[in-house]
Design brief:
By secondary structure, the protein is an alpha+beta fold. It folds into two domains: 56 residues, no CATH class; 106 residues, OmpA-like domain (60s Ribosomal Protein L30, Chain: A), CATH 3.30.1330. Helix content is 35%, strand content 17%. It is built from five helices and eight strands, in the order αββαβββαβαβαβ. The strands form three sheets. Strands 5-8-6-7 form a four-stranded mixed sheet. A hairpin with a 4-residue loop joins strand 1 and strand 2. Helix 3 packs across helix 4.
């Protein structure tokens, strides 16, 4: 019985793939960059033309490159939109300081608004320091920087359950040089979302 049932199941699965256009034919792919639809077999072209629309595959909620499908529109995740303040993830600090500068308050406020609107989102604030000072001192300074950003988010209404603050000290430099500009790049706290 098993010898007969297994080939029938495989045959049924393969025939199902044929009706979906997966049995050796190229599936319809919409090329949004060129504004044209990729080449298809004549059967697919006829089906697509008859339905009056383009064929796209469902990507689900995760989307592609931060985008998700919403009917016929592609919506970009605001955290990945370069024009959005949410795309800015680093808050820079002055030398030997852990005070959030006024120029970064709008970035912190934008992330707080996003987190307040998306209660399932979680962030880790990663504190960093430049290489000057001892390893222990830089770990403590990085933690104070991460805590300063975490507290700023908390004051703006973000629940503590959505926030975590850690320090990398001098261990994850963004710039490896020894100039003041390099040091300034490394004196920062990075906001990292848990789903990225």
């Amino acid at each position: 019985m098993k010898r007969i049932l297994l080939p029938l199941l495989v045959l049924g699965a393969l025939s199902g793939c044929e009706t979906l256009g997966l049995g050796g034919e190229k599936a319809a792919i919409e090329d949004r960059n060129a504004g044209q639809t990729a080449s298809k077999s004549s059967a697919s072209t006829t089906n697509s033309a008859a339905s009056g629309g383009t064929q796209t595959s469902a990507l689900g909620a995760g989307g592609l490159n931060g985008k998700s499908l919403d009917g016929d529109k592609m919506q970009m995740d605001p955290r990945k939109d370069p024009a959005s303040p949410l795309s800015k993830r680093s808050i820079y600090f002055d030398f030997d300081s852990y005070v959030v500068r006024d120029e970064y308050r709008s970035v912190v406020e934008a992330h707080a608004a996003y987190l307040n609107g998306n209660r399932s989102a979680r962030v880790i604030v990663q504190g960093n320091a430049d290489e000057r000072g001892s390893r222990e001192y830089n770990l403590a300074l990085g933690q104070k920087r991460a805590e300063a950003v975490r507290k700023s988010l908390s004051v703006l209404g973000v629940p503590e359950s959505q926030l975590e603050a850690i320090s990398f000290g001098e261990e994850k430099p963004r710039s490896s040089g020894s100039s003041e500009q390099d040091y300034a790049e490394n004196r920062r706290a990075d906001i990292v979302y848990g789903d990225e």
